[in-house]
């Protein structure tokens, strides 16, 4: 694995940590949007945008939603925007499958908190990268993930492969992850790893911690396999292309 450096320990409480790195050429093969498409690239970690208490409330939203389904393998997702929910080896549409029962699972307050947190993360990313928050749009997929040590049953369960978000999804320009559980307390393994040519740089999840980065090949990454316990997070992704924008989920 070579040299590994920890960018953010679970025990740290980071106001703002940012590392600038040269942009890859990935953005050149897509339409550029001045004042938004990355010209400054890098990765940041902050524990000062979302409180631990808010992270716990958001984790409960994820737990309630995922209790309706869940993958047979180790990785389950819940997408409140599209309604996609892991169920066995497949996905169902939460809203069609459960219909009006959804109002017994989620509240308007849940969705309001989700929107508020998404907005704060968006503003922090815009501020750090020197772009206008209004030039960024939420994009898909934006989803909750629940990972445990159960063996993979389908390729969707194999979350640990290295990948580049811009290559995988196209629309992504800025990616963020809000962690909803604590590394080494709630789960083992499952650290987030940036894979650089000279070394690996890891982020240890901590409830309320936001990790964010430009989505191109400058930030090739993977997640370690979870060895024990359960790891909750939410991936919130942004695009500069209004055509790929999505709205906040509504109950």
From TrEMBL:
Which molecular-function annotation in GO is an example for this chain?
oxidoreductase activity, acting on paired donors, with incorporation or reduction of molecular oxygen
Q: Provide the Gene Ontology terms for cellular component.
A: membrane
Q: Which Pfam families match?
A: 2OG-FeII_Oxy_3 (PF13640)
Is-annotated flag, keyword Iron-sulfur? no
Q: Which cofactor does it need?
A: L-ascorbate
| Residue stretches making up the Fe2OG dioxygenase domain | 140-242
Keywords attached to this Swiss-Prot or TrEMBL record, sorted alphabetically, are: Dioxygenase, Iron, Metal-binding, Oxidoreductase
What domain of life?
Answer: Eukaryota
Q: What is this protein called?
A: OGFD3 protein
Naturally occurring in which organism (per UniProt): Gymnorhina tibicen
């Amino acid at each position: 694995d070579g040299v590994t450096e920890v960018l953010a320990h679970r025990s740290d409480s980071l106001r703002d940590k940012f590392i600038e790195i040269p942009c890859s050429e990935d953005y050149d093969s897509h339409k550029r949007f001045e004042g938004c498409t990355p010209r400054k690239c890098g990765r940041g970690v902050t524990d000062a945008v979302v409180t631990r208490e808010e992270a716990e409330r958001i984790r409960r939203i994820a737990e309630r939603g995922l209790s309706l389904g869940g993958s047979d393998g180790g990785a389950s997702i819940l997408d409140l925007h599209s309604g996609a929910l892991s169920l066995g080896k497949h996905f169902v549409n939460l809203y069609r499958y459960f219909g009006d029962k959804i109002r017994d699972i989620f509240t308007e307050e849940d969705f309001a908190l989700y929107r508020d947190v998404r907005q704060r993360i968006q503003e922090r990313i815009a501020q750090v990268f020197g772009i206008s928050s209004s030039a960024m749009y939420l994009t898909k997929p934006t989803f909750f993930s629940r990972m445990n040590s159960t063996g993979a049953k389908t390729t969707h369960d194999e979350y640990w492969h290295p990948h580049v978000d811009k290559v995988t999804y196209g629309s992504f320009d800025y990616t963020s992850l809000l962690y909803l559980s604590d590394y080494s307390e709630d789960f083992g393994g499952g650290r987030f790893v940036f894979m650089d040519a000279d070394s690996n740089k890891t982020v240890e999840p901590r409830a309320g911690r936001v990790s964010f980065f430009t989505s191109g090949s400058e930030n090739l990454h993977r997640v370690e396999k979870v060895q024990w316990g359960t790891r909750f997070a939410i991936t919130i992704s942004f695009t500069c292309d209004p055509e790929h924008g999505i709205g906040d989920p509504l109950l």
